């Protein structure tokens, strides 16, 4: 029974890092019968109050189009690998928080994510999704650095 095993959350975006994390997961960690949840967390930016409603609509449309394209890409990638997966979207201003929240709600057994490989200074200034997930997740986290 596949549902009795906790799912694996794989954080995905349009980067090569996400593709490499998926490939590493499939080669080294994948187990048939474990549900794979592909989680995409598009960032919702706080819009400038001086921004026109037309510009806000344009940005929302871009996010929607990019998310649809990403969903199609990952559906093809998982189907090609013969892996049943659920694509989930969680909008957030802070993707790291969203990943941890979804993992908690899903009762995840593990979170898999890629990393951009930022140095300490850039990571401190820009923040790091993988750092946040490592420090706040209640399940094991696998960060694939390639």
UniProtKB/TrEMBL annotation:
It comes from the Eukaryota. Coiled coil: none annotated. Pfam families: Usp. Residues 8-145 form the UspA domain. This is Universal stress protein YxiE.
């Amino acid at each position: 029974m596949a549902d009795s095993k906790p799912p694996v959350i794989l954080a995905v975006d349009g980067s090569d890092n996400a593709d490499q994390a998926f490939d590493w997961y499939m080669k080294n960690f994948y187990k048939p019968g474990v549900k794979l949840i592909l989680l995409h967390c598009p960032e919702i930016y706080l819009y400038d109050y001086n921004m026109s409603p037309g510009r806000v609509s344009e940005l929302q449309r871009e996010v929607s189009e990019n998310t649809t394209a990403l969903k199609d890409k990952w559906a093809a990638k998982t189907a090609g690998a013969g892996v049943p997966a659920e694509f989930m979207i969680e909008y957030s201003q802070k993707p790291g928080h969203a990943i941890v929240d979804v993992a908690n709600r899903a009762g995840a057994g593990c979170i898999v994510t890629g990393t951009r490989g930022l140095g300490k200074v850039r990571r401190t200034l820009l923040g790091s999704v993988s750092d946040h997930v490592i420090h706040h997740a209640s399940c094991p986290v696998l960060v694939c650095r390639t």
